[in-house]
# Entry
Amino acid sequence: MQIKIDSSLLELVEGDITKQDTEAIANAANSNLAGGGGVDGAIHRAGGPSIMDECGKIGGCPTGEARLTSGGNLLAKYVFHAVGPIYRGGTHGEPELLKNAYLSCLNLASKNAVKSVAFPSISTGVYGYPIKEAAKIALTTVIDYLKTHQEINLVRFVLFGSDAYSKYE
Ligand code: ADP
# Structure
């Protein structure tokens, strides 16, 4: 589905983030930027070793922030490695940290003149964030940002499986 936010487009699709043709894709990374399973593993497998080389040089990223690398062999020119929170009951600052992880990616997009970004559902896999709560935060953060940043034309959430898609929908 697609929704217009002023002149920008917010899109929800079910699919694989590594196949997206947006200028940037976001990764749900860990704070060591060391690679892992889930979407992180898929991005490094599809993008090739140059992305990990760049991550190694950056060294790490605090929770609630994001770092930029090139996209290696991906269609996307950039990967924004965002570190979402590990869910520990929701009372350890998780909502704010999750919001900031998305905001950091959006700021990287604006700073680097990136007009289209695809996001996975950050923190809702191994990091255990309940997807319905995470979806609300992800969507409100993006919608609020697009309202004041029309330089980004497209934000696409790429949901892995129909269950994740329907939660976001
Ligand atoms: P986290 O550690 O932040 O929870 P995960 O990679 O474990 O990150 O999961 C985040 C979300 O990404 C989950 O909803 C998972 O189903 C989804 N996911 C896994 N592989 C892909 C993929 N190739 N494309 C898009 N989303 C994916």
Observations:
- Helices lie at 38-47, 49-58, 94-111, 131-148, 162-168.
- The mean pLDDT is 98.
- The longest strand covers residues 8-14.
